[in-house]
Amino acid sequence: MSSTRSDHPGVRIDLWTSSFCGACSAARAAVGEARRLAPALQVTERDVAAAPDAAEIAGITSTPTLVVTAPDGREVFRSAGVPRVEQVLAAAALAL
Predict the structure, then answer these.
(1) CA 19/CA 33 separation, integer angstroms
(2) How confident is the prediction for the chain on average, in pLDDT?
(3) Which end of the chain is more exposed for a tag (fewer CB within 10 A), N or C?
C-alpha cells in the first residue's frame, strides 16, 4: 500500500505495520477494502522498523495500529489491532 493523494487534502489514514506482524496482513486488507469503497481516502502504510523515530513520536506501541488525522491535524481515531472495514470508514468520516 503506498501513499495516495486525496480529494480531501489533509485527511490522513496511517496504517502502522511491521514485517513480523501476522495481523498486519488482515489490517492491510481491511484498509484496502475501505479504500476501494472510498477511493478518495489518503492512506499511508508505515513500517515501524523503517521509521522507528516517527513511530515513537506517534506513540505507536504495537502493530498494526490505525491512526486517522483530520485536516486540521487533530487525531480523531486510533486503534491497535485489526480494524473492521466499517471501523475504517467510520473513522475516516470523523476526519471530514
Answers:
(1) 20
(2) 90
(3) C
Cβ neighbourhood burial of 36 (10 Å; 0-12, 13-18, 19+):
exposed
List CB contacts of 22: < 8 A, sequence separation 6 or more: none
How much is the pTM? 0.86
Model confidence at 4: pLDDT above 60: no
Under 8 Å between Cβ of 72 and 8 = no
Give the 3-state secondary structure of residue 74.
coil
Q: How confident is the model at residue 10 (pLDDT cuts 50, 70, 90)?
A: low
Nearest Cα residue to 95 out of 27, 42, 30: 42
Task: Give 31-37's long-range contacts (Cβ < 8 A, gap of 24+).
Answer: 31/1, 31/66, 31/83, 31/88, 32/1, 33/85, 34/85, 34/88, 34/89, 34/92, 35/4, 37/85, 37/89
